[in-house]
Amino acid sequence: MASLASVALLSFLFSSFAFTPQAYSLEGYTYYVPSIAPKKVMNVIDACWRTKSNWATNRKALADCSEGFGKAAVGGKYGAIYVVTNPYDDPINPKPGTLRYGVIQSSPLWIIFAKDMVIRLKNELIVNSFKTIDGRGAKVEIAYGPCITIQGVSNVIIHGISIHDCKPGKPGLVRSSSTHVGKRQGSDGDAINVFASSNIWIDHCYLARSTDGLIDVTHASTAVTISNNYFTQHDKVMLLGHNDKFTADKVMKVTVVFNRFAQGLIERMPRVRIGYAHVANNRYDEWKMYAIGGSADPTIFSEGNYFIAPDNPASKQVTKREASKWQNWIWQSSKDVFMNGAYFVPSGYGISAPLYTRAQSFTAAPGYMVPPLTSDAGPLRCLVGKQC
User: Each residue of 129-169: pLDDT tens digit?
Assistant: First the structure.
């Protein structure tokens, strides 16, 4: 429980007005109070860029703001700005001005949108290396068709878009680069599928109601951060790891931080196989079956999360192991808050901390701070010339 001094400082943070962004330290964690929103406390990722009103002319500064294992994801930071002007899609011969034309290019690109648009893809969107999809300043939806595939590439940032109602892709030809069109077997209907890729950052997206998962990270993908996203109305939310026998996933390291797992979710927030997940400072509004699960001896560190259990007395447990002999698996909880009877079953002995490099490292807040830190999860309404 927080000390009286901590509570007093917390009250001050929510009520103070500041003319310039102020940083305050409480229990080892730095809280940011921006000048334009005096009652707002920002998490460390948002505070890196949201306090600046010149975001529209300095978009690429976002690439320096990730935390955790995906910290090194640069996306299209070192490339040109590409503007999507047309929501039309052609999977084989995409036209300039469309999203697909931008993401398949071989050179780095920072992709932005000229206006609000709903993009209904005709087949899966295969994203090439060194790309940023930046939805700030527009309301961008990818929906009602196949969605995003990140396969065999590196350095991809997806920020500020809504991805929902995704459908399976059909077998057929799909262009994956400016020089290659390949025969695809059909996608599963994930919102975002990260397959054999590294240095990936998914931030401030809205994800809901897809045929398969909302985010899958599989086939030895690693160096991934999933942050500030809003998940809702879905069954199998997030899968980390291909299957129980795919031992190459031992290299997988994923940071899941500052997300809001909202109403209407059932399970896999995330489910982890074999690899490692640092699940920190997320808000769980409910789950129907369980919140954090796994199989095949993964390591999971739950730190500073805010768990609100469902009313069903049979579903109060946060954790679920898909095995009978799991007692030695390293699953640990620290600084978590458990509401409405929620509880975490720990197991194993040994190191569960993420062992970040200095660049990747951040300090997780205590769980009671999570509601304000995740209050802006999902795409932000950013106006040119104003702080987001």
Answer: 999 999 999 999 999 999 999 999 999 999 999 999 999 99
268, 271, 283, 321: the catalytic one is 268
Is residue 268 among the annotated active site residues? yes
Q: Which long-range contacts (CB under 8 A, 24 or more apart) does 103-107 make?
A: 103/127, 103/128, 103/131, 103/133, 104/128, 104/175, 104/176, 104/177, 104/178, 105/131, 105/177, 105/178, 106/177, 106/178, 106/179, 107/79, 107/80
Instruction: Specify whether the CB–CB gap between 75 and 201 falls below 8 A.
Output: yes
Is pTM beyond 0.70 here?
yes
pLDDT tens for 69-99 read 999 999 999 999 999 999 999 999 999 999 9
Q: What percent of the chain has a predicted confidence (pLDDT) above 70?
A: 90
Distance spanning both ends of the chain, measured CA to CA? 32
Q: How far apart are CA 143 and CA 258, in angstroms?
A: 24
- What b/e sequence results for 324-335 when a residue is b if at least 16 CB atoms lie within 10 Å of its CB, and e otherwise? eebeebbbbbbb
